[in-house]
Predict the 3D structure of the following.
Amino acid sequence: MFKLAERIRALPPYLFADIDRRKAEAIARGMDVIDLGVGDPVEPTPKHVIERLCEAVRDPANHRYPSYTGSMDFREAVVRWYRRKAGIELDPEAQVLTLIGAKEGLAHLPWAFVDPGDLVLVPDPGYPVYRNATVMTGGTPYPVPLLEEREFLPDISSLPEDVAKKAKLLFLNFPSNPTGAVATREFFREVVEFARRYGLIVVHDAAYSEVTYDGFVHPSFLEVPGALEVGIEVHSLSKTYNMTGWRLGWAAGNEEVLEGLGRVKTNVDSGAFQAVQFAGIAALDGPDEHVERQRAIYQERRDMVVRGLEEVGLKVFRPKAGCYVWCRVPEGYTSEGFVGRLIDEAGVVVTPGVGFGEHGEGYFRVSLTVPTGRLREAVERLKNLKLQGVL
Ligand SMILES: *Cc1c(COP(=O)(O)O)cnc(C)c1O
């Protein structure tokens, strides 16, 4: 009855209707379906963070409108976090902005800087928010392929000159969802140089920077010389502290970019609940044992999944970081065809790579954010399919 706005009609179609239908059918058949599709940690938020929220929620001062840019206390905690993690100094006033989750900031950013017709460089395969937020502002997403032969790092130098000139923003995401690839300082330096040459804004989504394996430490984009002149890093408490439902994150870096994003936000939302920001301070200040424990849990799951899928004969990309395992589908399948087959035959749901962009075709993603026992069961089912000759 009501015609949707062009910006909504321009969004790419929902890709997973067929997958959803096959999953519902499997459940209706009485199958015990294991969903390895979503990235939402099952472990609870650390206790000291919950305690801090309970305390803060009782204080009437926190019942009022929060500051648009975030409480100074939270932004100072972010500054301490960067000092401790990356050895860099930020100004809490001008170089940090509180977000209602990373997704909120990522989705609002194009509204500040993208005009209709501007290009926005988005990783492909990548988190769909970069592309869809661009489409909603009337900008044109330009997919930057993440290819297996380059270990899923984008080849910035090969982007056509006219594309680079027309591009307003460059979205990056390392550790990567969905590929698990990580960035090097050298790569970030190349990005800074590229952004300077073409005058574009870099937006690095570091949601998984703390979920790392084998002692690996992921660099921050902001620690590279010149990064503060060209861009921002967007962060989230969701994956590091199992706080997806709390909705808290931040953007840090270039003042002008944060100022632009802040202007969108003052006209859209009224900031993150102050009590949640106090809980966020408790998370960021530590103790960090929880983060260590969570890394160990994911690492055990990663090892089990990588080993299991390799036994099944699949080509697996062992991640150094992130909550996912990226894997090639067997010869002769599309990613959706293979995922549909897994649901029908084994009751196991994974995400088809094509859902993250056209260069995700031929791959699928397994989420490690499910209980270890369920993950083990899923791997056993795939091994059985192999034994039966189905795979
Ligand atoms: C989960 C995820 C986010 C979302 O973070 P929130 O703070 O929960 O909004 C951002 N970026 C990527 C790549 C993610 O996978």
